[in-house]
Specification:
heterodimer; A: 77 residues; alpha+beta; GMP Synthetase, Chain A, domain 3; three-stranded mixed sheet; 3 strands; B: 111 residues; Glutaredoxin; two-stranded antiparallel ribbon; 5 helices; 6 strands; 49% helix
Chain lengths: 77, 111
């Protein structure tokens, strides 16, 4: 069962209420997404830690219902 | 993940300086994200070992808990988890991947 982009965005925003989140359905097939997350909480964290925070926000859906999600994390200036 | 799987994975990443867990083989990746990392490593001309998780279900599941990272591909350099395809691409574009490899003493073989 694939996830819709709005659900991805909601889960990320729930975990990071102050984040700016953009989710794009890359192929238009409801299965390949890209998320750009800009969040002050990423400051001082490594890229692996930042991406892990986003994966955690997705509550285990990544690699399950969510097949492909490219993640770009940004620390706002 | 059983202990024997964890030990197998550890053995694999300790055996080679650069190890890529991917879907498919470098000559025929079965996933766009895996293909992207293969392409970057080829551009940097570093030798790497690869593990096709599609032909090894035990490692396919085990590697996710081993690194606490839910997706494949996964790149390891000198036994350390570096990242998945997004991070590898960002590091490559920023020149950080080449810097990390040279810092670890891994260089492309001279032709």
């Amino acid at each position: 069962m694939a996830m819709v982009g709005a659900e991805i965005e909601r889960l990320i925003k729930t975990a990071f209420p102050d984040a700016q989140v953009v989710v794009v359905d890359l192929a238009g097939d409801g299965d390949h997404f890209a998320a750009r997350v800009s969040c002050a909480e990423f400051k001082g964290k490594s890229r692996v830690q930042q991406h892990t925070m986003v994966y955690d926000a997705l509550q285990g859906h990544m690699g399950g219902a969510l097949h492909a999600l490219a993640i770009e994390t940004i620390v706002p200036k | 993940m059983t202990n024997s799987t964890a030990e197998r994975i550890k053995g694999i990443i300790d055996k080679s300086d650069v190890v890529l867990f991917m879907k498919g083989v470098p000559a025929a990746p079965q996933c766009g994200f895996s293909a992207a990392v293969v392409q970057i490593l080829s551009r940097l001309a570093v030798p790497f070992a690869s593990v096709d998780v599609l032909s090894d279900p035990e490692v396919r599941e085990g590697i996710k808990s081993f690194s606490n990272w839910p997706t494949i591909p996964q790149l390891y350099i000198k036994g350390e988890f570096v990242g998945g395809s997004d991070i590898v691409r960002e590091m490559f574009q920023a020149g950080e991947l080449a810097a990390l490899l040279s810092e670890k003493g891994i260089v492309a073989p001279t032709p």
